[in-house]
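Tutorial handout. Part one gives the primary structure; part two gives the three-dimensional structure as tokens.
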Amino acid sequence: MNRQPTSPSDLLLSRTLSSPLYVLRGGQFIWNNRSLWKYAAAPLAISAAVLGISYVILYRLFLRMVVSFKGAEWYWQVPYYLVTVIVAVLLLVIVFFLFTRLASTVAAPFNDLISERTEALVTGRTAVNCLLPHLSRTRAGLLGIQ
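Part two.
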């Protein structure tokens, strides 16, 4: 028997716990429909490259700043490595949030295309097959040109 949320806190908890599953379901849908891969590949590759490059750059900058604090004695090495691990984890968190912002910005031009293709797959209607005029219309709309 399914239990329906009865209070606002139950509703908030159920929505919060189910939200991460939407990303997995969307990824599974794209994985199962190979025709959508070409629309998801470019934003994913660009975002992953920027994520990796930015993490490496920030980590190397951090190491340059902290290397002067590393002493030869063991009691200076313990805090050094402890701080290095903490900062590495914090950098991962910061870069992850930057990654989500960047990914949504990079994927913006592709969202309409992947949405149209997904709708066509789900409903069975045919989608617009020409990519360039669609992107041109989107860019013209952003510039205020009708």
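Part three, for discussion. The chain has one domain: 8-143. The chain has a mean pLDDT of 75.
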